[in-house]
Amino acid sequence: MFSVRMRAEKNKKHISGAENLVEKTKIQTIVSGLVDRALSHEKGEPDLINITVETLKIPIKKVTSLPLILMNVENETEGKKLARKLLLELGIPALCIEKSISLLEKGPAIGENMRGAIIMDLKGNRLETDKVRGIRVSRMDITEEAANELFNALSVSGLSSYFTNISEALILATKVESVKGTIAELCWSDDPSYTAGYVASQKMGYIRIPHLKKKGDPFGGRVFFVNNIDHGKYITEMEQTPVLVTKFRGIIELFGKK
Ligand code: WAQ
Ligand code: MG
Asked: Is residue 226 within 8 Å of residue 120, measured between CB atoms?
């Protein structure tokens, strides 16, 4: 199996990234799809597209996805209120919650989006070595079979048009929550037109919140809340261990349909 990764930038700013784990025979098709994606992102045309194709040197970890919990909120004020409540219930101190929300609101890389994620301990310290790049979770994908299960479930809930975003975020969150030391993750997109985000945890699953920012807002990001991690091990596992989602755990709709 190979890891195929794409990232695109413009004027040194990150525009988009995506990746897959594939058999050798699929590399060309996947690369071509990733190049199309890089060229058609709403944030503009990149002046640099970086594609990496690499053999996997570590055995793949096969996992079942987190369950996808659908919540309904009317706007981003309600959405953030819900996110705060969920994170508190997961044991994240209020100080860390406020700090993480305000970082994502302002653009966590000194007024810009990060390429990767913030790691925050329960005292509110940022543990990622590079505060502009952050930590990039890498080497993960979903099998065709599990992706079909997810797609069919999303269709029933009227969300199939968000399949790509949801599937990629669910794969990433499933990997992040599977790593020892992660307590929870808070995420919303940095794409101006995409207002949805989530709070994910092993305890409660992937809780999707349709509004965590206003339409048009160009900022977003990810925060991994951690406790007692071995810094080096944690980062190596996030970046290097290949994780394949082989089963979709299902959808639970709370508070009616979106
Ligand atoms: N590893 C760590 N952080 C990442 C990665 C990665 N591989 N990819 C993106 N990020 C960070 C980075 O700071 C981006 O600015 C931020 O996350 C947002 O990335 O409907 O689309 O790709 O349920 O814009 C979540 C909701 C959508 C999906 C998330 O994120 C749904 C999304 P984006
Ligand atoms: Mg984005």
From this structure: yes
Which of 165, 235, 239, 241 best tests ligand 1's pocket when mutated (most atoms within 8 Å of CB)?
165
The answer to whether the CB of 186 falls within 8 A of the CB of 199 is: yes
Atom number, ligand 1, closest to the C-alpha of residue 208: 23
- CA 168, 128, 54: angle at the middle one, nearest 5? 50
Q: Mind listing the pLDDT tens digit for each residue in 125-134? A: 999 999 999 9
**What are the pocket residues of ligand 1 if the criterion is a CB atom closer than 6 Å to any ligand atom?**
17, 113-117, 134, 136-137, 162, 165-166, 169, 172, 187, 189-191, 194, 196-198, 208, 220-222
pLDDT tens figures, 65-77: 999 999 999 999 9
Q: How many CB atoms lie within 10 A of CB 98?
A: 12
Q: Is the pTM of this model over 0.85?
A: yes
Write out residues in the chain with pLDDT < 50, as ranges.
257-258
Distance of CA 240 to the CA centre of its chain: 16
Please report the pLDDT score of residue 258 as a whole number. 41
